[in-house]
Amino acid sequence: MLAGKSSINGGKMEISSNTNRCASQLTAVVTSFNQGEMIQEALKSLLNQTILPDKIIIVDDGSTDEKSLDIIRGLESMVNQVPIMVHRQKNSGVSAARNTGIQLANTTFALVLDGDDKLEPSFVEQALPHIKKSSEIVAVSSWMKTFGVLQSIVCPSGGDIRKFLSHNCCPATHIMRCEAWRKCGGYDETMRTGFEDWDYFLRLLETSPKARIAIVEEALIDYRTVPASSNVRSMDKRLELMKYLMEKHSNAYAKHMVDVMLDLEAISISRLYAWESEMKKQILNSNLSDASKKFMKSPSYGDGGMAAAVRIAARI
């Protein structure tokens, strides 16, 4: 059974004395690189699940920070209902760390969790039944509650490959079917600047014509937001990364080109109308930015820009 409180370097990581059952054939894989006490929070959220994983594997991806290394050593010595294994490797990126952990898990299902994020207690209980009830479900995740610099609820939709071609529709934290992971070849370990999750989900969905990714419509993932995160930095290379994805998955993009273009246009229109609304408010307050003034003097053509400028000028 759980030992209750565990002391690490003089600090206490509070874990409820959980006697809940473990989910057979579900191993949690937690990746970590210089994440200090955040890895304790991630682990605590796993050990406080209403249905526990049957094993937890922490893959330390070459941490160099001494505090992080001390914490990892402390986690290794904890006594719990759920066995905890620590695997250390040279820094190779999150894709390689996840592949290593899933390979070591050797199980039917794997729960992937980044070491700086957390789960709500019912994540496993609510998500696991979705992937168990149909072989067509290759992965399952949930909506996200962000914390840190941004407090919000993010609602990815999941779906089949057509949905994922225009934009990523699943959080990095999810439960996967390991058979599909093996079939698609796992994460692309050459992708170290972002979008590795999006690419992986496309690969999973290419394993079967009926493959789908399910989403629990409740915020069960606590996602940490910081300006320097890889997710934010990857936007600087978005066009380059999208070109890579389109070339890599060219058959899927060619087959579903109409769906992709319509989805992208729908996203563009939605953002355009939101931007118009803000522009009208700023005009009323005589507070337009230089970029907005430049747009109104010379609106873009052929992409809805001129129509937007007309509506803004007419205040309609």
Describe this structure in words.
The chain is α/β, with parallel strands linked by helices and 316 residues long. Helices cover 42% and strands 23% of the residues. The chain is built from 13 helices and eleven strands. Strands 3, 4, 5, 6, 7, 8, 9, 10 and 11 form a nine-stranded mixed beta sheet that branches. A two-stranded antiparallel sheet has the order 1-2. β8 and β9 form a beta hairpin. The N terminus is likely disordered.
Short description:
By secondary structure, the protein is an alpha/beta fold. It has helices at about 40-45, 65-75, 95-105, 125-135, 160-165, 180-185, 195-205, 230-235, 240-250, 250-255, 255-285, 290-295, 305-315, and strands at about 5-10, 10-15, 20-30, 50-60, 85-90, 110-115, 120, 135-150, 150-155, 175, 210-225. Helix 11 (about 255-285) packs parallel to helix 13 (about 305-315).
